[in-house]
Design goal:
Oligomer: single chain
Largest sheet: 4 strands, mixed
Number of helices: 11
């Protein structure tokens, strides 16, 4: 009878212990005679954690290592901590009839208990104890079962997350600014090239090489036009450039005009036909509206050009006044 009673009580006790649930808490306490650095190394090996993660264990706050585990699992954690030289506490989650107090390594004083805090072993987020991290969503128990936990530097969140995000925005801004600068410089270059392509210095005189652009400039400024038809292969044209367009007095006088230089090999056929160009060089002096006033035939000396320019300026001034 006595033996049967003992067996019955033992079975009941085992059943109660199996049904009860516990949490494992660590508050930074170590065993007597142990050095803190030695304990940290032991815990780092136990949890496969890096130095920054282990420092969280000794922050002075209650860390919930495991929550809602059975008695056997809780004892395994307690023993593992002891082997590392640390002291953890095993607390019963709910009060049960028949137990005088929660099972602990040592009795706590009768005082209000602080809210248990846990730190996610992956992203280091600090929150009320829970089986799942509110930030990265990992299941803590499953995380510790992995063969290699990610380091703090490799985690997707954590203390460096905001800084990494800022650096990402900064890199994007720098890249975007660089693109804008490149586009701006390209636009400036294109604009400069376009202007250079539309204007050309021949001898000492600046000419428009685009007929329409030249006439637009004349119409806007009210200045008369010197229109020259030439070609790169033309010997007489080269002599005119050397003897007339390179002459200082002609160059100075030409600044009162809008000068247009047309290469007949590149010009539109209609333009050459319109002015009935039969030989080159051919020079025409137009008023600012584009009407032909003088066509130069044989008189191509510097003095002849200066005389024609002076005449065009006098005609232009008269037309502006009337």
């Amino acid at each position: 009878m006595g033996t049967a009673t003992k067996v019955s009580r033992l079975t009941t006790w085992k059943k109660i212990m199996t049904e009860r649930r516990y949490r494992v808490v660590f508050e930074g306490e170590i065993l007597d005679g142990m050095q803190v650095e030695e304990v940290k190394r032991g815990l780092a090996t136990l949890f496969r954690a890096n130095e920054a993660q282990i420092e969280r264990f000794f922050s002075g706050k209650r860390l919930a290592i495991k929550k809602d585990v059975d008695h056997e699992t809780a004892m395994k954690y307690l023993q593992a901590f002891e082997r590392a030289g640390a002291v953890c506490k095993v607390e019963e989650l709910e009060a049960h009839v028949g137990l005088e107090q929660p099972l602990m390594m040592e009795k706590e004083k009768e005082e209000p208990r602080q809210q248990d805090i846990m730190i996610c072993p992956k992203c280091q987020f600090e929150q009320e104890e829970s089986e799942e991290c509110l930030r990265c969503g990992i299941v803590v128990s499953k995380f510790y079962q992995r063969p290699h936990a990610p380091t703090a530097e490799a985690r997707p969140g954590g203390p460096e997350a905001d800084l990494v995000g800022f650096r990402g925005v900064q890199r994007w801004f720098i890249s975007f600014s660089t693109v804008l600068v490149i586009l701006f410089l390209a636009g400036v270059t294109l604009f400069a090239y376009k202007n250079v392509a539309e204007e050309k210095t021949i001898g000492k005189i600046s000419f428009y090489t685009d007929y329409d652009k030249g006439l637009d400039a004349a119409l806007k400024s009210g200045r008369p036009v010197m229109l020259v038809f030439s070609a790169s292969w033309c010997g007489a044209c080269k002599q005119m450039v050397k003897n007339v367009f390179s002459h200082d007095d002609v160059a100075n006088a030409s600044t009162q005009l809008v000068n247009i230089y047309i290469d007949v090999d590149k010009a539109k056929r209609q333009l050459v036909k319109e002015y009935e160009v039969r030989y080159i060089p051919s020079v025409f002096f137009l008023d600012y509206s584009g009407e032909t006033i003088i066509q130069v035939a044989d008189r191509r000396s510097p003095d002849d050009f200066i005389e024609n320019i002076d005449y065009m300026v006098r005609v232009h001034s008269y037309n502006k006044q009337n």
